[in-house]
Recover the amino acids of this structure.
């Protein structure tokens, strides 16, 4: 059985990672999408347990103490973390794991799991990013400006990622991410381990 790999997808808030990942999941069997825990309020249309596990700060802190997170970070005033248990279970089943997490989280996971593949998604332009954030219409002007500042800071980390995908159209972005995932499974280390089984 092929071994599962971890793929980290980062990129500025509003770039469309969620849309890409959702479309990607429909094309890929044996792939596990990690559902993060967050202390942020749900947006309209977001479901508990589907988009995030929405929890309060107290519960989040207790999960930190229990070492339940593979990584966690604070992002624009809220906590976000990847529950460790489900990721490990998926890896044991031989599934690829997708983590849609910010740059701080990606750094933590890469340190623990150096073979994780990192993909950074960028918008075609800043104007497009700002427009997408405005269209989402969920953030106050202050929060929106904070997300834009944060996006520019995050972009500086992009060069340390293994791959960069421009989200011009969702179809093209999904095609690129799929191609990256396929190529990563064609590396000699992966193929040789299959032969020696
Ligand atoms: P949003 O509030 O827009 O859903 O997410 C804000 C940022 O937090 C995004 O960059 C998203 O990728 C990131 N994020 C979501 N879940 C996690 C997580 O579990 N850990 C970390 N470090 N970042 C996360």
């Amino acid at each position: 059985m092929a071994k599962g790999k971890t793929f980290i997808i980062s990129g500025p808030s509003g770039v469309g990672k969620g849309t890409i990942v959702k479309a990607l999941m429909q094309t890929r069997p044996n792939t596990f999408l990690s559902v993060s825990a967050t202390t942020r309020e749900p947006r309209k249309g977001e479901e508990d347990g589907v988009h995030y596990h929405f929890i309060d700060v107290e519960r989040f802190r207790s999960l930190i103490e229990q070492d339940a997170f593979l990584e966690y970070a604070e992002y624009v005033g809220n906590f976000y973390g990847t529950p460790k248990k489900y990721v490990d279970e998926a890896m044991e089943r031989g599934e690829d794991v997708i983590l849609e997490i910010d740059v701080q989280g990606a750094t933590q996971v890469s340190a623990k799991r150096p073979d994780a593949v990192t993909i950074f998604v960028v918008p075609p332009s800043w104007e497009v990013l700002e427009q997408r954030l405005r269209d989402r219409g969920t953030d106050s002007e202050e929060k929106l400006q904070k997300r834009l500042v944060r996006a520019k800071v995050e972009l500086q980390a992009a060069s340390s990622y293994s791959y960069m995908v421009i989200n011009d159209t969702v179809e093209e972005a999904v095609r690129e991410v799929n191609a990256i995932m396929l190529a990563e499974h064609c590396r000699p280390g992966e193929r040789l381990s299959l032969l020696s089984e």
User: Anything to note?
Assistant: The pocket of guanosine-5'-monophosphate is lined by residues 13, 17, 36, 40, 71, 73, 75, 80-82, 100-102, 104-105 (CB under 6 Å).
